[in-house]
Amino acid sequence: MTIWPDKVDGLCFGGDYNPEQWPEATWRDDVRLMREAGVNLVTVGVFAWALLEREEGRYDFGWLDRVLDLLHEGGIRVDLATATAAPPPWFTRRYPQSQPVTREGQLLWPGSRQLYCPSSPEYRAAAVRLAEAIATRYGDHPALAMWHVNNEYGCHVPHCYCDVSAAAFRAWLRRRYGSLDALNQGWATTFWSQRYSDWAEITPPRLSPSYLNPTQQLDWWRFSSNELLDCYRAERAVLRRITPQVPVTTNFMAAQFKPVDYWAWVASGELDLVANDHYLREEEAPDSRVDLALAGDLTRSLADGGPWLLLEHSTSAVNWQPRNLAKLPGQLRRNSLQHVARGADGVMFFQWRASRGGAEKYHSGMVPHAGTDTKIWREVAQLGADLRRLGEVKGSRVAAEVAIVWDWEAWWALELDAHPSADLAYLDQIRAHHAALWRRGITADFVHPAADLSGYRAVLIPSLYLVSEDAAANLRRYADAGHLLVQCFSGIVDEHDQVRLGGYPGAFRDLLGIRVEEFFPLRAGQTVRLDDGSQGSLWSELVHLDANVDGAKAEVLATYADGPVTGGPALTRRGTAWYLSTCLAPDDLERLLGRICDAAGVPAASQTPNGRAPSGVEVVRRVTVEASGGNSYLFIINHNDRPATVPLPASGVELLSNVEVAGSIVVASGDVAILREAGA
Amino acid sequence: MTIWPDKVDGLCFGGDYNPEQWPEATWRDDVRLMREAGVNLVTVGVFAWALLEREEGRYDFGWLDRVLDLLHEGGIRVDLATATAAPPPWFTRRYPQSQPVTREGQLLWPGSRQLYCPSSPEYRAAAVRLAEAIATRYGDHPALAMWHVNNEYGCHVPHCYCDVSAAAFRAWLRRRYGSLDALNQGWATTFWSQRYSDWAEITPPRLSPSYLNPTQQLDWWRFSSNELLDCYRAERAVLRRITPQVPVTTNFMAAQFKPVDYWAWVASGELDLVANDHYLREEEAPDSRVDLALAGDLTRSLADGGPWLLLEHSTSAVNWQPRNLAKLPGQLRRNSLQHVARGADGVMFFQWRASRGGAEKYHSGMVPHAGTDTKIWREVAQLGADLRRLGEVKGSRVAAEVAIVWDWEAWWALELDAHPSADLAYLDQIRAHHAALWRRGITADFVHPAADLSGYRAVLIPSLYLVSEDAAANLRRYADAGHLLVQCFSGIVDEHDQVRLGGYPGAFRDLLGIRVEEFFPLRAGQTVRLDDGSQGSLWSELVHLDANVDGAKAEVLATYADGPVTGGPALTRRGTAWYLSTCLAPDDLERLLGRICDAAGVPAASQTPNGRAPSGVEVVRRVTVEASGGNSYLFIINHNDRPATVPLPASGVELLSNVEVAGSIVVASGDVAILREAGA
Amino acid sequence: MTIWPDKVDGLCFGGDYNPEQWPEATWRDDVRLMREAGVNLVTVGVFAWALLEREEGRYDFGWLDRVLDLLHEGGIRVDLATATAAPPPWFTRRYPQSQPVTREGQLLWPGSRQLYCPSSPEYRAAAVRLAEAIATRYGDHPALAMWHVNNEYGCHVPHCYCDVSAAAFRAWLRRRYGSLDALNQGWATTFWSQRYSDWAEITPPRLSPSYLNPTQQLDWWRFSSNELLDCYRAERAVLRRITPQVPVTTNFMAAQFKPVDYWAWVASGELDLVANDHYLREEEAPDSRVDLALAGDLTRSLADGGPWLLLEHSTSAVNWQPRNLAKLPGQLRRNSLQHVARGADGVMFFQWRASRGGAEKYHSGMVPHAGTDTKIWREVAQLGADLRRLGEVKGSRVAAEVAIVWDWEAWWALELDAHPSADLAYLDQIRAHHAALWRRGITADFVHPAADLSGYRAVLIPSLYLVSEDAAANLRRYADAGHLLVQCFSGIVDEHDQVRLGGYPGAFRDLLGIRVEEFFPLRAGQTVRLDDGSQGSLWSELVHLDANVDGAKAEVLATYADGPVTGGPALTRRGTAWYLSTCLAPDDLERLLGRICDAAGVPAASQTPNGRAPSGVEVVRRVTVEASGGNSYLFIINHNDRPATVPLPASGVELLSNVEVAGSIVVASGDVAILREAGA
């Protein structure tokens, strides 16, 4: 259940504010500029540990007092950090046992950030003490709107392989398995003479002569994600105790970070609201516009459809990619409003002022090195004004009728080594399905495989390699309610990464009415044709139609026209249960998902009785959920380099211009329109 | 001298059987299915250490007793492992000094397999104790047909760089060199101030600021191969003592494994029979059909032309390649019979049942995850039937009149660093020569450079960079008896990797009547033309014709038409001694080898008075060596995707169909025919 | 101030002579051959530590006595090494704390060379002791011409990360910064909670979770270069004390080695002459002829325009590249004379005899493996004769009117991580500018950014990312005297790698009359067009013309015709100050530099009133600086594969042939002509 920082009026707007990097004389200027831009919330203190605790137990809060007072005078609210993301050099020197160790046994050293073993008792104790000192000092500060615990948990040290971590891993395994026999069973240690006869024999999956036990690896991912959650829990507990009324969160990196199972984090009930950091990867992602939408959709789904906070993104270039592309004019604002369209009730940036020194000085800020007579500053100020005009969308929810199953455990398991093809990557498959829907103007939620799916007309399951029996049953049950597409290499193993025997995909064989006898992964770069003209890549399978337990047989919708299983079924359907045994080319996948959505009666947000939005125009609807009626907001984002005429399903008021429109609206190149739809 | 497991009737057929991975209830079913498929031999216990020795000295043989009794009841013979390939976790915890260390000083940890330093006295003692316990327990078991020591020695840890290994290396060097002066001389330590003044100063070739002493590296390869052989020797001694009548072997990885000098192993007299593991590398090898033939030819040569046992290959995909291609229909059987054609008297698979869990669960088995209603199982059963029909070929020998020189020491030395070109790789050159013969239908043996060559009409020497004076003399002498082709960068250094001065190739200069003044390696991707239309790559040389010691001059057969040595000799011949100073394109090399074979009077097995087998049809002959007459078997393997009409040198009976044929035979696409030739 | 080894008559000629690798019987032959080839100087003893000091303090000079006496008898002078480049195995065993450690914490081990931590007190003491012993023994030897300290300092171990080095780094930082506050300020440690509260907390930039503090990294480069200089200083001090009259040097690797700041070394006054090693990188450098010229130009510039010594290059192939291309006929001599053209007063090779064993045995020598009936030996002998004919050029200086700013600190800083584009590499940009001038026949010097520039008509500043305020002022002042081209990403940060705020490039904004608002690095492989037809790559910028402090405005010479800043200025000019905001294609850069040189009145050496030397003909002039008149030598090098007719600015005598020429001269393909120009 989301607890929003209610002290902030309207949508949140601001960024990370690190005044300690600047002379105190600059601070008043900062507040003046924040007000000018409409900033109403700033994150303070994320990397201030070294300045707040000068040596163990000796605190220096004076400077932070002055910063918070100044912000309060200026009417700016504060998302106050617990400052535990980067222990200071004195801490590392005093507790060298807290230095993380790599899989190869290499010790990590000071000079960057996040230098701690997540299982280190010394680190955890120090972090809690600092959080307590800060909460005690500032719990009643009038500027305080929310707590920001740590920072991007695990981003640099998701796993530590030291002996302390090894002991913690063993303790976690004892709790998970209860007995060594259960662990030996779960890990299949009869293979390769791996049977453990004492808990003390178990180590993290360190460098080893050959492929490590896959279940050991999988449990290591689980353990590591949980250790980070435990770090968070410990800090949150003290904040909750001292300031029960102040919401607490940390910043996720949803859709861009494999090591942390954010489903487990939100399920823990420890987050009062979901906050996310998102950065474009222009050269890495196939289409950064869609990748941004994916991140928004996933974060919203983690927030159970409720509002969420974009806690970091960039005004322009970042500094950590090989080539850090600057944003083109208008892109800062368009990216920001795209997040709002996907459910964000706030837009924050890293960081307020671009640093003069340090590792991130070429990361763009709201105030760039070149000052305020700049494209960036003008767009920041315009965005602030836009967000003020959008205050009424706060709290509305995004409408989605299709769900894509997303699961971190399945991601971890799919990408373990020694699989049929190293080319079948989880995020690629997720992205392919999500992007195909995006191109058709269909908004999707992401769901955990065991989630309640009753609200959806269709559910997509891209390569869900690992699925527990409970989750599999949940997905199978769903087929009674709506259409369901299972893609190749799904449902193969149970939660111990052990294969379901008797023909793949064990978890869905009966549901789909098929039996896969053998995988035929394709060569690097190889493609296969299907007889419906589609093209597959990466993967193919020898599929048989099998008499189903309840007698209904699957039908073959397409067969392989060439490749290693020529003539065999490629795409099948049994009632509402579809099976795709390869990875389709983007256009072909889009056509297939369109067909399924049509069968399921899923409308596109971009579709109206008067026609459809042109290609490259993103359309998303947010609706309020008030008892009586409620509002509906149509976000229209024109990604094209020419104006677009977009037919409207209803007349209404364009909020940014406050102009009434009907029939259709012309959206300039790169521009965004937001329509409060008249009751249809 | 080969000692065959005579308890097995006919050709061996079966695979690795790991019952410990399955509930005991499955075992009876296993035996039933084995009998159904015609299995007569299974390898048991390879990775059973952890289950057989539960803690140090506490054995649990009960389950294995039951397995062996069940197999015996079913008439299945057992290739029983000493189970020493993977020490259990308790062993590593108790003897952490046995954990291997990488060249970079990184310790290796449990979780996979083969976690031991080959020089570890604790490991060696434990392995011998276990072998002794097993031999004592099962030496008289009626199912026992042979011993399987360890498994694929060195496959993951061919070298260990720990301090124990360092001491063993020093001891080995003392024995090899006798004195430090001899070592300093052999290693050329006057270079770079490397002179050793105490044995204790010598270390393994660990991570170092620059290129390591090449002779130190070369001796390290020699030492490491020998340490593994010593591990084998120790286990074999105890088996021999307890069961003198039972043949002992281990599984080689001939043609795919660089670190072990299998010539030295067979020369040691410690192997009663030669057994090999072979896996296709579809995406890596230029032509996996030929690569399989190469492995068969090399293994047969290691067995001195006698029968050998294919101890592992796969029914379909493996799990350790980036993309693990499944075998196409018919390929399992065709691959298997191709090994038999090349001299195998048995065909075994890894493994019986595909595992449910663990690192190799996607390695295909004889019983796949999908069960017996599968392509794989049906082909396994058909192969079993085929092999029964082929019982009479057992013990026959493959006829070969050409030899290719193969030497692990030369391989190691050629691929040391700081050479004229890093692109000249040993296996590439070996493969090129072997494949050119394969395409011409000529079967070749491999020979050690110091071997008796009197049985061959032609000998090929691909880039034999290092050759000892004795071996060089052997090869030179051969030129009186037959044709000999020396390829570039052969005979350059002695056994200490020291250059023979006065012009290359020092070992063969007089024989060839040439003097190479300087190497001219080619740029990446560069090719040169020869004036006979051939194309060279990787390498060229400035070659002079030199008056030979006995006066006979070489003639120039082709010169370089372009490139860095335009106009210079590229291909020369002095009597029966040919010299090729570059790496020819495949077709050009095939033409050259054809010319040499013609000159030497070597017939192709695929050649008959009535014409030649079509391209893509592999023809190999096995002959029995009985006193009176003996039989001759022609294996005809059609690798093409259409039927082939193959002219026959003699009439005879096709053994798989038991049909008499004469003149020619039509072999279906992908099919194999085996003709018992009527006395010609 | 250069002190030349005056004992050597004429130009120096010879190479590294390592007699310890050969039986003593060979030595007399060596001297005979040296005399035959005209060798007058050899470097002896570089890697002889292990033979000179057999155990700690026990010296064996007998063999070296005999070598030096033999050389002296033959009239060969000796560049005697202090032999400290590679400690012997006994040293490492006795002082294991001297073994270097990598950034990842890996210890380095014996077996190659240069195995010492540059900060090791044990190594430094041992090196000084050995230098003292050698100087004491041979200081008065009549063959001794100069001292050769160590060898290619830092080539394999430029940085050591051990604890000893860490302590030395801290001590160096204390001296540099004086106080922790100053260090915290300089390193911007308010960022990421890095504030140091005790000197003991500071470590080298070892493996760390994320990007290391950039100023910490930069200071580490400074420190490491200085530690090596301190090693040199210590040895030089003892040599100076014992033999004050003998010049001392060490061999640089200018233009090919990033870790050592050779400007700082020559500024230290510790080198009596500048010596350089240069090796072709045929496959790596875009044009190895120009790369050789660049190395010569840089080395001459390090020698302040005075004579320098080519102490190592190769007669043909080296051994450390992936493919070591042999030199084509004539190339040995042409390369050598090209160095002389660029100011070398001596040409030496590594090494005299190609080794039989060891890691460098495939490195070519003056006497190759194949002996003296070889292309190499004949060219060596011819070169010796040529150099004798060129004796009179000794001491003349190369004429250059253009300077390119080169700075190691800027190189280090530019290539730190987390920058806008990882593709903008320092050497690439330097090479591009130098090569463009080379193609136009314009000879350039290299200069330190703070150097006196008054002698130049034009100064080029390729991507001088870091520049101190003093150096920036020096460069700005220069614009009053001549033309100056600043290329993108110059003048961005101060010596602490902290950004100059207010718009880029902070150090040159006013000078250039522009303000860069934001960087727009290009995608991998992306190019942009300029409206003058030029093409840019890697980088673009949003540039504004700003009113300059003194009112004069810049003009736009070219704008971006496409790409992310379409329509914005790409090339600007304010008076003599030009700014280029991208990286031009080679031809376009050549055109631009031609335009600037024309504006500056810089003539090409290849230009005469009668026309210009054909493309591919390199023309360089050396002039003597005698009081009365002096001579002028025109070096003409024909790199083409056909003869070239080269117009001459003056008549004169061709020195190699001693023929008078006038008007023009025909230079054969690959040949070199050297004209003593008649007073024009």
Low-confidence stretches of chain A: none
- Assembly state: homotrimer
Question: How large is the share of residues in beta strands of chain A?
Answer: 15-25%
Distance between the termini of chain A: 31 Å
- Give the overall form of chain A: globular
Radius of gyration of chain A: 26 Å
> Considering DSSP H and I runs of 4 or more, what fraction of the residues of chain A is helical?
25-40%
Describe the protein's architecture and organization.
Chain A is α/β, with parallel strands linked by helices and 680 residues long. The first copy, chain A, is built from 17 helices and 33 strands. In chain A, the strands form 8 sheets. Chain A has a 9-stranded parallel sheet with strand order 7-6-5-2-1-11-10-9-8. In chain A, strands 14-13-15-16-23-22-21 form a 7-stranded mixed sheet. In chain A, β22 (569-574) and β23 form a beta hairpin. Chain A starts with 11 loop residues before the first strand and ends with a strand. The model of chain A has no long low-confidence stretch (mean pLDDT 96).
